[in-house]
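re: that chain from earlier
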Amino acid sequence: MTFVLSLNTSALIHLGVMAIEGEDPAPNLPLAQQSIDCLAMLEDKTRGNLTGEEERLLTQVLYDLRLRYVHARKASG
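^ sequence. v structure.
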């Protein structure tokens, strides 16, 4: 699940929610979408093979990122 958390962090950085130390948070929505798509593919390909905890984590991460992405798209115009 470290990979899922890594993709989550990457998406949050690209959404401008988090920043790399010493840098200003700057949204990059295409890169955020790419991370979200990777997580969605992972969810699809691992369906039925995850523990309950792993499945809940992946589902919650995707829900949160998708919601943040929609808000970021609306905010960008």
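Residues 2-76 form one domain.
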